[in-house]
Amino acid sequence: QLQLEESGGGLVQPGGSLKLSCSASGSTRVDFAYYGVAWFRQAPGKEREGVACIRSSDDSVYYGDFVKGRFTITRDNAKKMVYLQMDNLIAEDTGTYYCAATVPSPPVDGIPVAHLYDYLGQGIQVTVSS
Q1: Quick one: CA torsion of 110, 114, 117, 121, rounded to 10 degrees?
Q2: Residues near 22 by Cβ (< 8 Å), separated by ≥ 6?
Q3: Tens digits of per-residue pLDDT, 59-108?
Q4: Residue 57, pLDDT above cutoff 90
Q5: 14 CB-near residues (< 8 Å, 6+ apart)
Q6: Beta strands 10-12 and 18-25: pairing type?
Q7: Which position among 14, 24, 39, 71 has the lowest Cβ density within 10 Å, counted as fewest Cβ atoms?
Q8: Among candidates 112, 93, 92, which has minimal Cα distance to 102?
Q9: DSSP β-bridge partners for residue 53
């Protein structure tokens, strides 16, 4: 069973930056390097939406249009970590951010879809406000 824990959230002013981290742990039969990983977010009163995903085999990535050019997803398999660098944040980025993982790694030809990911973190709050 894989456990995921997010960190790095908080309050930031518009135009600012935050870096979210996702730590994977637990006993699994498959090395973390083979997991596809994604970030989702959920704003108050809205449905959860895919933000970005990264494939296991070649670190290919895909971003939602609303974060392209502002967010960057990366991973460090040796440390079992996944990161989401968020720059030029806007108020609409406010929400609870979730890290998700699954194996085999889903395609990265579109925004991540929640039902394809077997493991989900507890979430962490990001608030963009002046």
Answers
A1: 120
A2: 4, 5, 6, 7, 37, 39, 81, 82, 83, 84, 99, 121
A3: 899 999 999 999 999 999 999 999 999 999 999 999 999 999 999 999 88
A4: no
A5: 89, 90, 91, 128, 129, 130
A6: unpaired
A7: 14
A8: 112
A9: 38, 62
